[in-house]
Prior knowledge:
Pfam families: RRM_1. GO terms for molecular function: RNA binding. It is a single chain. By secondary structure, the chain is an alpha+beta fold. Helix content is 28%, strand content 21%. The mean pLDDT is 80.
Amino acid sequence: MAARALTTVRSGFRRLSTFSAFSPPPPAQAPPKADPSTNLFVSGLSKRTTTEGLREAFSKFGEVASAKVVTDRVSGYSKGFGFVRYATLDDAAKGIEGMDGKFLDGWVIFAEYARPRPLLPSATADTSSGYQTGYQNPPTY
Length: 141
């Protein structure tokens, strides 16, 4: 009796293991490239990278209007990404060419044109004029 139950359990497991009700996930598609702009998104930054270090590295390729490393509120360390804004589109293209795939503070970084931030329908809509701003206020706790 025990041998028959074991055989039934094993054969049932075998049947379940050969049947898959799940289809494979669709192949991943890269998001579309952003339109050229003076604002660059930089990823792959070290936790030790500072705003000044980012500005200094990218200023070799053109006039940097602003640079910002996004940091954690608690630790103050970099979250691993930031933004660099150049004065001209030419400088921005040179910045991408010069820094994409290069080392900064011991880490390989990636530079690309920044995508515009999606607008929140309720937080950014001005109902009187229908005008939407590109700014979003951070949540208050």
